[in-house]
Structure prediction request, 452 residues.
Amino acid sequence: MTAIETVTATPLGGPSLPQERRLVTSIPGPRSHELLARKAAAVAAGVGHTAPIEAVAAGGGVIVDADGNSLIDLGSGIAVTSLGNAHPKVVEAVQAQVAQFTHTCFMVSPYESYVAVAEALNRITPGDHVKKSALFNSGAEAVENAIKIARKHTKKQAVVAFDHGYHGRTNLTMALTAKAMPYKSGFGPFASEIYRAPLSYPYRDGLTGPEAAKKAISIIEKQVGADNLAAVIIEPIQGEGGFIVPADGFLNAIVDWCRANDVVFIADEIQTGFARTGAMFASDRFGIVPDLITTAKGIAGGLPLAAVTGRAEIMDAAHTGGLGGTYGGNPIACAAALAAIEAFETEGLIERANEVGEILVGRLRDLQAQDPRIGDVRGHGAMIAAEFVDSTTGEPDAALTSAVAKACIAQGVIVLTCGTYGNVIRFLPPLTIPDALLHEGIDVVAAALAAA
Ligand SMILES: *Cc1c(COP(=O)(O)O)cnc(C)c1O
Prediction:
């Protein structure tokens, strides 16, 4: 425990834990094992976990468990701790705010930090049109509100989401989410007036961006009709669906069609936002300007906050009192977000995301050249994935993927899987991870793959 008690803040954020992979027990060790037994008895079975450990400290690129193991973190708590854990600016802002006041409810007694977060989001999100924002607690809640706003603005009801899309676990967002297991099975009935269009998935559909867009638009026109359609919602790079990067021109064609047909284009940048893809937002990379954008995950250095930001005339469609929530835009989360956004803008993190991406893609492509079970390596910035396939048939290989991921965790490297077919390992390390640790993490993945 001494290593944990003596931690201090570092310029890169997070406690100055030794940046090393260190296994002193098998995973899970005895202390973690004890907590997992209590979890099984006390926590609903539906709440799963990836790494069987009891986390007690985290920073830079490591998570330390109760048994003294230090694991390399290649998941950032699902793209949240891009700034590392406990970035000093975030810690300072949170400590100051918690001592000042914890809550008034912005809808009862407004405070400055909420307005400042809205101003910052209006400034940094794509497009130089006049924008407004509203703040919420979670990504799913932001998506729900983006749909509410789009319906109110267009006076239409239908919403199109895409194959492989993930938008959350609440009722409306389950309907938007594509994958049944584990997100939807047994949880219906789902919200109505949700339709699904085919995505551009270059590795599997072989279509160019414009071809894939033509196919999607034809289905939307024939099966839904622009006259009924309030919004199209899409992740510019799909997250849970497998880090699928659409072919060039796909998103642009969909945006153009939406604009010509009075349909609100919503970019769900909850996973891709805040420097993750090597741009402040993935939309910037593709040269698209969404009407509305949803953000969460990386927004506030680990504190729960989410937002909808977009064209002022659309955002203002909802009547007063129609949007909000008790905790939405909590002052502590807002203080954290302001500190986080400042860090993203001033600490070279966009450049760092691109460096991390170059290392990941370079190493994974080298592995792919020697191992045909890696069917595809793709992504942008520090959001990179490897898709695993049967080397003879090209079919998705979920068993291999899960075996590799489990072996990595047992060896002290936390990796996350994803993908409709469960055959993708996604790499989204904290941007504060040292290069050496990133290389070591990939070495472990390579060894696990060779042994599988
Ligand atoms: C995680 C995620 C959500 C849901 O966010 P929560 O905060 O878990 O509700 C929605 N959309 C995308 C793209 C996500 O990655």
In short: The pocket of pyridoxal-5'-phosphate is lined by residues 138-140, 143, 166-168, 235, 239, 268, 270-271, 296-297 (CB under 6 Å). The first helix runs from residue 2 to 5.
